[in-house]
Inverse folding.
């Protein structure tokens, strides 16, 4: 089957995906003032701002978890998600020379951005470990399920990255629409506050896999209440379907990329 | 019977001059119109055109196809089809084995990263594994002659160094099919010579090569040549035949685009004052510059720069031209005004064989800059005389003799 053949070809490019991700990381870390701190700066500063603001304005039910850890445990995976979306969106347009002058499977470019975002995620998670140690939070044995949650999130991200990368090549204003969408999405998810699980906002949790995913991170790492089961099941389905559907679409439009970039 | 290494069969490719829809906003506004718009009978939407029509050829291992044609004829589109950057709209394209395209040298180089990192990145983009690159790294650096620059960020490289490193990486990719665009026109002459030597070596090792160039010496080295114009194959023959046809078309086109004022055109005449386009080394030739000067030019100084097509000969003259004809002070007492011609007679054309173009300029004796000039005023080819058995580029008029001392110790008589 053609799709299986294409998938094999794509797997053959795994080294190139890693090389291009490393190219991005090296260039960023080598020549920016903050170096590795770059990955940490954004989630940490957001965590500090929200801690100050929300400790005065509102009092969220964090289940006894100190707000800074609660917020950071949401901001960390959220930054991964946002990084995949914004990085992925420009992956084809930033590399238009590669798209128009060299051949390799085009999926390589959004995928390498996902990998680079994962690297930042890894660096930034050191801060979470530090925060947890500071507040004396020790995760239970259920933390072993964490890779599954990460897998769900990355699968979802891979699908969206391909979708947005392709769309942004076809319609160049997608990246601007995306900037707005990412901000709205952040406040529509349980990033810096818990969302009610019933009513209008509970319904939002069914179509937005990020909320149950973030709830799962907090449950596994910080011992927060487990995510809403219905939402989690819906998220699992969305996270499985998105990459497959996105890839099938990507394969179709990819044939024209060389003419459009 | 095995399939050829590279094969294009009745290939048609449609391209867009400008994208019909490039933003979401345009998509929304244009949707109603697009729904009712039907492609015309050729299957073309507005802004679309056939970049290639009905192109077919096949290449065996060890063959080189040279592609020539005017700008925008579709030469690069053929390379992009073979490289799978473009997909054909009709017909089929097959290339077997590892296909390496030198359509842009150093595509994927990161300017901030040092040469070393970029060797690994570019090699990987060209389809080499990291292990393969690691084992060839020393050879790549040696080929590029850049051992001392490998830790320097690529943005600090000169364009020549950039091209050299990129080519060195590509040279070690061991392709089965090599696609070369005009890229090798960068870099200095010795670098270009090495590139072409390397390409020739690859060919002898069984690589199939498709090369696009405006440089006739490159095309001449191919085993076959395709001349395309406006997306259609005009001819596919031995390079010599195709180049002759191409040069004839070019010369014809040149006559259509002569200008009304200044230098109108430059003509080549043989000893019977008949126009010619092909010159034989050693013959007598007259170059005639037609002019139309509304302002008088006092004491005109006419120069004709003869620029060789093979940049390996642009050695070190400031203008980069192989030869120059200049009237110097000989027209001192004259004034050029209205229309007329300058003739320069060359008794024996002692130029290296090859393709030339002529840049002409006229300036007043006291002026620093040219009053009128015309770049690429005429093109011509200098050929070897038919009876010559020399392989040299240039033959000098020569007379040989032999003398021997008649008595021991006595010097030979002059």
């Amino acid at each position: 089957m053609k799709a299986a053949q294409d998938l094999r070809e794509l797997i053959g490019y795994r080294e190139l995906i890693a090389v291009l991700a490393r190219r991005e990381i090296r260039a960023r870390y080598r020549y920016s003032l903050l170096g590795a701190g770059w990955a940490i700066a954004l989630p940490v500063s957001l965590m500090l701002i929200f801690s100050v603001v929300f400790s005065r304005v509102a009092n969220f039910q964090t289940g006894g978890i100190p707000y800074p850890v609660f917020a950071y445990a949401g901001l960390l995976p959220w930054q991964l998600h946002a990084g995949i979306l914004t990085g992925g969106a420009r992956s084809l347009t930033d590399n238009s020379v590669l798209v128009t002058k060299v051949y390799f499977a085009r999926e390589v470019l959004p995928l390498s951005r996902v990998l680079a975002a994962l690297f930042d995620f890894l660096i930034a998670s050191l801060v979470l470990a530090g925060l947890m140690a500071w507040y004396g939070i020790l995760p239970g044995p259920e933390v072993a399920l964490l890779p599954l949650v990460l897998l769900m999130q990355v699968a979802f991200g891979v699908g969206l990255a391909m979708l947005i990368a392709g769309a942004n090549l076809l319609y160049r204003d997608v990246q601007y629409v995306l900037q707005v969408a990412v901000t709205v999405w952040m406040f529509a998810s349980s990033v810096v506050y818990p969302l009610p699980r019933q009513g209008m906002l509970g319904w939002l949790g069914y179509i937005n896999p990020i909320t149950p995913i973030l709830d799962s991170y907090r449950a596994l790492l910080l011992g927060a209440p487990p995510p809403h089961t219905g939402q989690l099941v819906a998220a699992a389905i969305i996270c499985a379907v998105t990459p497959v559907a996105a890839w099938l679409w990507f394969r179709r439009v990819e044939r024209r990329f060389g003419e459009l970039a | 019977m095995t399939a050829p290494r590279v094969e294009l069969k009745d290939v048609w490719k449609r391209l867009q001059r400008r994208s019909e829809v490039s933003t979401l906003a345009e998509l929304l506004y244009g949707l109603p119109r697009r729904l009712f718009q039907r492609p015309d009978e050729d299957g073309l939407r507005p802004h679309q055109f056939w970049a290639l029509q009905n192109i077919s050829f096949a290449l065996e291992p060890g063959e080189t196809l040279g592609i020539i044609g005017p700008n925008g004829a579709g030469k690069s589109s053929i390379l992009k089809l073979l490289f799978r950057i473009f997909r054909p709209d009709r017909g089929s394209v097959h290339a077997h084995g590892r296909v390496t395209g030198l359509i842009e040298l150093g595509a994927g180089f990161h300017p901030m990263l040092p040469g070393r990192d970029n060797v690994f990145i570019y090699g990987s983009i060209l389809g080499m594994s990291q292990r393969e690159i690691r084992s060839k790294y020393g050879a790549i650096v040696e080929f590029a002659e850049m051992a001392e620059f490998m830790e320097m960020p690529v943005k600090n490289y000169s364009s020549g160094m950039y091209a050299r490193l990129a080519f060195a990486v590509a040279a070690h990719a061991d392709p089965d099919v090599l696609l070369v665009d005009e890229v090798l026109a960068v870099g200095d002459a010795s670098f270009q010579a090495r590139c072409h030597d390397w390409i020739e070596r690859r060919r002898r090792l069984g690589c199939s090569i498709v090369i696009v160039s405006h440089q006739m010496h490159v095309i001449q080295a191919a085993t076959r040549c395709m001349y395309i114009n406006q997306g259609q194959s005009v001819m596919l023959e031995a390079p010599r035949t195709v180049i002759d046809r191409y040069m004839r078309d070019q010369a014809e086109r040149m006559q259509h685009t002569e200008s009304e004022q200044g230098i109108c055109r430059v003509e080549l005449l043989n000893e019977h004052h008949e126009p010619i386009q092909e010159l034989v080394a050693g013959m007598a030739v007259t170059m005639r510059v037609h002019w139309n000067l509304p302002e008088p030019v006092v004491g005109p100084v006419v120069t004709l720069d003869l620029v060789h097509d093979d940049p390996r000969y642009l050695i070190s003259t400031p203008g980069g031209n192989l030869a120059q004809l200049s009237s110097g002070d000989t027209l001192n007492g004259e004034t050029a005004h209205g229309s007329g011609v300058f003739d320069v007679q060359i008794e024996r054309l002692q130029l290296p064989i090859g393709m030339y173009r002529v840049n002409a300029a006229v300036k007043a004796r006291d002026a620093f800059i040219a009053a009128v000039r015309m770049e690429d005023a005429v093109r011509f080819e200098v050929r070897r005389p038919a009876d010559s058995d020399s392989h040299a580029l240039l033959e000098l008029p020569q007379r040989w003799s032999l003398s021997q001392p008649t008595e021991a110790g006595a010097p030979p008589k002059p």
Observations:
- The interface with chain A takes residues 15-16, 19, 21-27, 80, 83-87, 99, 101, 103-104, 107-108, 110, 112-113, 117, 120-121, 124-127, 129-130 of chain B (CB under 8 Å).
- Chain B has two domains: 6-247, 262-383.
